[in-house]
Recover the amino acids of this structure.
């Protein structure tokens, strides 16, 4: 019975003739109004093919039919995509956050909307070329208490919940940070909390440069400790918190701690998009043994690497 | 004797069909809300000259009385619509009847045939029987066609390195003492190849490596780990160890090396970024905008207002002007504010785009050649800014990917680079400021960079958008089929 179901699902989520299958999941399908929704899209292929994962389109149905949904971005970029190979048995995961759409359409004219502006039942699916994913159902309820207060404050400025616009101007970024400090556990602000941390990391880098401290011993390390010790429980963005921390640890040369965090990602969030990043990093790190890279007969003399890089 | 004027809104001479000139619409290619015949009067309150409308377009305006037997001159003002591409002719006569719609017919939506049997051209004005009304006729004077042109005033700015040697050194990885060099590997046991902005394996793929003991040879990095960078030995190149045996290498006094993936020369307008110079080139934008009756005029600026100092600070996007994203989208001086009546945008010769799409490393899943944003300039107003990423363009020509995806739902195709990428990218970004989206031709990145004619053109649908835009603005992009 389960085999039959699996086959049916594959046929439905793929497209005749295409080797590609898309599987869409919502780690947290029950949200409140204005809360960002995270979707994870898993790409697999029955034969080797080339894909441009950036070209996946999310379709959202608010009860009036499916429409392409575009999360707002700052600016319009000319990007030429280079196809990436997706082999048989390989799996690629991409994350898609639905929070705010629209943009500034004329100088000073903001035209932003929440992805989920009112309570109700929504549906989402993904498409790429002629392949469509399965459908996920989303239930959106009215916010209460602190979340209702937040919504009242951002109702006229949905862009304050967007990833990029919210942090472009210092005054807006300060406003978002104040909201996050006031409501640290609100699901509506869970993604913005990561944005606030990123901003604080940038300030910390500036401070360490000014004081002459190494980031690994200075303010950067202090902010990282806070990030690492503050799980975003009950939200789908905890893996993003860990990813920010791991990437920063790597960048400042603290690879030991980075390894621990990447391992934590694979343990705590094995099905998310961050786990794929973590596994890739760990596999490359494991392959970084220099002596193994010098086996060519022309590579005399053999040079032994230090066991661990200098921290 | 009285003098009469009549302004005529005539049909578009540049097209005679959909979508540019939809003859089925009663007022196609016309927007006469503000257009009128009248004259200038002095506002008693301000002393300024203001236009006073006396007759709408198509209506007959009675002007001065002319004394019989005397030569006289009378002037009236035609205020045109503010929409680019609208066309007018003005007729004058001493008889209102001769200017009436019966006697003065404007070729508009219904093609008629002239005396020779051929369709009358758009903008044609005649007596209703195909007989031309031209200056040769004594009873009616008629102007040539007047076409409305808009001007896009562009502040042309550039990132400039104030100290190219220092900036280049800051972007390079400059190792002082390698551990060993083999035929195709550079080894540094200090773990030097992982840096703040190259923290992972293979982050240097596509960079160039040179070792000081034969510093004129540059090698292409094909992979790297923390302590090893592997290079490709190009045709005719000596091996990386330059045929020295290990003892001789170990005995070298100078074991320094350079790993470089960004060239500060990309900000030097006297140098080449591929087949063209390292500067945003708006020549194609001028040509394409002219099709929509928009004239691109660079704003005359003081050097201090057109130069943006190049800075780079790894870990600090807001002050790192290599990659122009988010907070790093620096504010520029603004001499002028943009408005419906005065179109003003900024064009910047910039360095790299999004760090994840700047071809560093070369294995990235895309390359970002330009970006148009709206943001505050230094006086606090909002303005559009188009940035052209010259270092990414240089990189693209130096080491182009094998295939690209031209549009969504299309299979990958081999990349054959146009020699005019800089011009095309500049035009693409400037066209964004006037409402074009990613949908076709030059506005599709994957078509834009290919060496085909269509990559340097706009479609008729895009021309319609340019003809109707009333100020610099962007549109939601729900149907974008390409980036």
């Amino acid at each position: 019975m389960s085999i039959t179901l699996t086959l049916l699902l594959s046929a439905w989520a793929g497209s005749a003739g295409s080797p590609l299958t898309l599987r869409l999941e919502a780690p947290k399908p029950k949200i409140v109004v204005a809360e960002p929704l995270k979707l994870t899209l898993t790409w697999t292929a029955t034969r080797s093919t080339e894909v441009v994962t950036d070209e996946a389109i999310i379709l959202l149905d608010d009860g009036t039919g499916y429409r392409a949904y575009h999360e707002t971005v700052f600016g319009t970029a000319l990007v030429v995509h280079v196809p990436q190979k997706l082999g048989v048995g390989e799996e690629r995961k991409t994350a898609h956050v639905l929070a705010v759409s629209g943009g500034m359409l004329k100088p000073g004219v903001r035209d932003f909307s929440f992805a989920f502006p009112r309570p109700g039942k929504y549906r989402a699916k993904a498409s790429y070329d002629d392949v469509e994913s399965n459908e996920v159902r989303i239930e959106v309820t009215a916010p209460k208490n602190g979340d209702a207060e937040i919504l009242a404050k951002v109702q006229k400025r949905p862009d304050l919940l967007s990833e990029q616009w919210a942090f472009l101007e210092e005054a807006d970024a300060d406003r978002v940070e104040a909201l996050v400090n006031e409501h640290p556990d609100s699901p509506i602000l869970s993604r913005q909390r990561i944005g606030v941390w990123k901003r604080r990391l940038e300030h910390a880098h500036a401070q360490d440069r000014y004081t002459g401290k190494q980031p690994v011993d200075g303010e950067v390390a202090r902010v990282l400790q806070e990030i690492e010790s503050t799980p975003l429980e009950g939200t789908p963005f905890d893996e993003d918190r860990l990813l920010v921390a791991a990437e920063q640890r790597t960048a400042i040369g603290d690879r030991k701690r980075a390894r621990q965090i990447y391992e934590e990602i694979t343990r705590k969030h094995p099905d998310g998009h961050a786990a794929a990043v973590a596994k890739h990093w760990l596999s490359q790190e494991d392959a970084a043994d220099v002596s193994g890279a010098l086996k060519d007969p022309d590579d005399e003399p053999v040079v032994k690497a230090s066991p661990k890089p200098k921290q | 004797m009285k003098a009469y004027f009549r302004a005529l809104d005539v049909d578009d001479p540049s097209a005679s069909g959909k979508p540019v000139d939809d003859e089925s619409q009663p007022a196609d290619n016309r927007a006469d809300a503000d257009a009128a015949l009248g004259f200038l009067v002095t506002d008693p309150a301000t002393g300024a000259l203001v236009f006073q409308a006396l007759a709408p377009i198509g209506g007959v305006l009675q002007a001065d009385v002319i004394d019989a037997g005397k030569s006289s001159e009378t002037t009236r003002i035609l205020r045109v619509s503010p929409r680019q591409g609208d066309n007018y002719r003005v007729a004058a006569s001493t008889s209102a009847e001769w200017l009436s719609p019966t006697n003065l017919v404007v070729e508009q939506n219904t093609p008629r045939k002239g005396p020779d049997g051929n369709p009358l051209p758009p903008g044609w004005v005649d007596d209703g029987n195909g007989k031309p009304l031209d200056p040769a006729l004594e009873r009616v004077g008629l102007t040539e066609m007047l076409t409305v042109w808009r001007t896009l005033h562009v502040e042309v700015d550039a990132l400039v390195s104030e100290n190219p040697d220092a900036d280049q050194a800051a972007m390079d990885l400059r190792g002082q003492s390698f551990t060993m060099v083999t035929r195709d590997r550079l080894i540094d046991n200090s773990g030097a190849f992982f840096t703040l902005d190259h923290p992972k394996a293979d982050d240097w793929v596509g960079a160039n490596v040179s070792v000081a003991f034969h510093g004129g040879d540059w090698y292409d990095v094909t992979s790297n780990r923390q302590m090893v960078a592997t290079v490709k030995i190009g045709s005719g190149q000596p091996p990386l160890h330059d045929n020295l045996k290990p003892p001789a290498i170990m005995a070298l006094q100078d074991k320094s090396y350079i790993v470089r993936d960004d060239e500060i020369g990309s900000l030097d307008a006297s140098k080449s970024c591929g087949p063209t110079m390292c500067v945003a080139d708006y020549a194609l934008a001028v040509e394409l905008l002219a099709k929509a009756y928009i004239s691109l005029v660079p704003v005359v600026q003081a050097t201090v207002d057109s130069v943006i100092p190049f800075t780079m600070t790894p870990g600090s996007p807001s002050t790192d002007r290599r990659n122009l994203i988010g907070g790093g989208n620096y504010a520029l001086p603004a001499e002028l504010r943009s408005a419906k009546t005065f179109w003003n945008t900024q064009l910047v010769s910039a360095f790299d785009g999004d760090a994840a799409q700047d071809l560093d490393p070369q294995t990235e899943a895309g390359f970002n050649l330009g970006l148009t944003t709206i943001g505050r300039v230094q006086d606090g107003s909002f303005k559009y800014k188009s940035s052209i990423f010259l270092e990414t363009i240089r990189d693209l020509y130096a080491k182009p990917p094998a295939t690209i995806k031209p549009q969504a739902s299309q299979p990958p195709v081999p990349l054959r680079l146009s020699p005019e990428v800089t011009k095309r990218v500049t035009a693409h970004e400037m066209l964004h400021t006037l409402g074009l989206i990613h949908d076709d031709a030059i506005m599709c990145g994957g078509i834009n960079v290919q060496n085909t004619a269509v990559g340097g053109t706009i479609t008729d649908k895009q021309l319609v958008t340019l003809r109707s835009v009333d100020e610099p603005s962007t549109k939601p992009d729900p149907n974008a089929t390409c980036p």
